[in-house]
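Chain A, query sequence.
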Amino acid sequence: MEQQNVKYVNKFIKIYPFLKGATDDLLFYTAIDTLFLTIAKGLTSQQIVFLTTVSSIFSLICRATLIKIIKKIGNTKSVRLGMGLLLLSSIFITFGKYYFWILIGKMIYEMAFVFKDMEGVMLKNNLTVIGKTNDYAKVTNKNMNVYAFLTLVIALFSGILFNINPYLPMYLCIMVCSVAFIMYIFNLKDVSKNNILDIEYKTERIKISKIIWVILVSYAIYYGLIVSGQENGKLLIQYELLDIYDVSKVSIYLGIIVSISRLSRFIGSVIFGKVYYKIKNKALLALTNMLFLSFAFLTIGYFTKFILLKFTLMTIGFCIILAVRDPFALYTSDTILKLVKPQEAQEAISYLQFARKLGTTICTFLASAILLKWDMIYVIIVLGVLAIIEIFIGIKLYSMLNIRKERTQ
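Chain A, predicted structure.
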């Protein structure tokens, strides 16, 4: 072990959580995305949903090719390329005068995170160099906390910044990405011998049992509902606010709602981390039922006439969507890794990522089709119906996991 590498990794561990947390998304953009696209860019709800649909399909088509590129260039170059693409996507979304260029920005955004996914592998490899592999969860938790804190703070001030200038949050987004890109080039690298990984994306390598199939289907539907519900739920609240208030007030009120939702996401993750090992597979039933409740609150709130109660119920529904997002991802990945052999773990996770993107594509495509003829509320109602189906799938999976547990005891 070279002393120089040890010194570098110790520095890497200190910097990584902050860089990772600040670039886990286009932070300033996510806080005002629907406002920016509707007010500054003049897009309709159909066009916004279509952006997500097309970019998701594009990501599915290109994923296998991108993974082959990662295999050839290694973790270090992949992560730097991913950060560069994230910066490029923010520029296209900000300065694109036509719908086509904004769409290109969204496609680049999707590609960026395929490459940036190698950050976790880079972290694990570097920790191995200094013999601290067990610190992986500790360091990862730090970057999650940084991300949660930043999104909360940004959401609090995003409405004010938007009122000053609709493009101001986006300029700050580009500035953060630019600084991060420079930091990635000079401060983040995989110094292990496993920098260039042997990543294969072949479905025949792992035997997918019936229980794994159910997990993949459940995850695809659940995450598709989460992504589509978060986007369309936010749009629904925004449009309801615009029917009552002017744009300046809407930007403030929506910023407050987003801030509360970001806080709920942080609290949801913390609470789930503490109770997960106590409730175990019962978490599956709790999370699927809570997802349905989120759409129920949004729907009931929409049809409520009393303004304060209306937006209280809709905010609760929107907050639940974000609160159950990370816990379900943690539960699913933990469960599937317990079911496969250690040498199949990486491929199993790649299946989860594929299922997640497929579910997102299907749900956003469905939402796009509905919006061609009907209002946004019908999208929420249909997503609620799908959430009921997800509950039954969850019950089936819960039963299968319990039967398997009894057989192995």
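DSSP finds 14 helices and no strands in the chain. The two ends are 42 Å apart (CA to CA).
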